[in-house]
Amino acid sequence: MEKIRMTTPLVEMDGDEMTRVIWKMIKDKLLLPFIDLKTEYYDLGLEHRNETDDKVTVESAEATKKYGVAVKCATITPNAARMPEYNLKEMWKSPNGTIRAILDGTVFRAPIIVDGITPYIPTWTKPITIARHAYGDVYKNTELRVDQGSKAELKVTDKEGNETFELIYDFEDSAGMIQGLHNKDKSIEGFARSCFNYALDTKQDIWFASKDTISKKYDHRFKDIFAEIFEKEYRARFEETGIEYFYTLIDDAVARVIRSEGGYIWACKNYDGDVMSDMVATAYGSLAMMTSVLVSPDGIYEYEAAHGTVQRHYYRYLKGEKTSTNPVATIYAWTGALRKRGELDGISGLCEFADKLESAVLKTISDGIMTGDLAAISSLENKQTVDTETFLDEIARRLV
Ligand code: NAP
Ligand code: MG
Question: Ligand 2: distance of its center to the CA of 278 in Å?
């Protein structure tokens, strides 16, 4: 069989531990036999990040800007324990944080739905994709403990030196605390554009919610920016595509999400996205079935799995054990990136291959062959737990 040819390279970001092992297996068993794979390879494994003083992470993000599509393996974010383990020069920052800062993107997370695994909310028959605005609010706050008898005020000094004051609270009768939050029009505009672009791209409705009735300036500004950008830049294209932008209050959104069947994107403010993405991921069953894509406001895509490097499995692998680590989200990172590359370069064979590979994954699982994490929650009667390698071989068998 002739291999599918590519014209533009994918930016390939290799990673760490068990996912690095799986990365190679996926390429060897599921990609290289079928595609004349063209990638620009960046090794974001912690050893190489350390050797290059983390320059490789920046270079990989710059390459993503150049080519437009990347696929990333999970990587270690160093903590104190990793310093001696990898003999690190510095506690390097999270690669995802570095890449996100350079691409100025929004992360969209969506579950992969398979037969035999029923979400905790059984009416959720389609994926709910969560988009989290990853800037500002409580994650970049300033906090103070306040003694009884103090008065707290907000003060803003403009560029001419004029000051505006607003009383926060007069702490006459008790001590307490205050918190200063901020966000930027520019960041919210980028978030809104990423969300609307991704909705068009995936042909799904998009919901956004805040607490604008209570927060009449702060949250209301989010609502206004979304509305302005939608009217000016997106309404016509949404109507053509047959999708909708829907705004509501956050509490109403939560109630509607629970009653829904899924199949839309839910754009969330930073804190809402933090909390709701964990809720949604848990309800769909397994972190190992959660995909993640970073989308920049100007349409650059970086695909990955939402889970980490599966460290505990890796230590067992190092002892020579065969592990039953789930490669599905990592496979979907590849199919997402290949499909997008195919779309951009007009290579339909690449898009078709991505569809076929995803079908082969789903068929393998619905045939009852799965990794341990899925077997633990699957309702199929004929299910069989296999190790990662066997699972990948079974997928490959269904691919030809
Ligand atoms: P993790 O790698 O997501 O794994 C946590 C646990 O979830 C695993 O021990 C395993 O449970 C289960 N799990 C996750 N993915 C699985 C898969 N594909 N198949 C089967 N089980 C899976 O999180 P972590 O252990 O907290 O973090 C490990 C490293 O990953 C850290 O260094 C962290 O910095 C990094 N990390 C990277 C990213 C990223 O690059 N995007 C994201 C998160 C974390 P059992 O052990 O019970 O089987
Ligand atoms: Mg969280």
Answer: 5
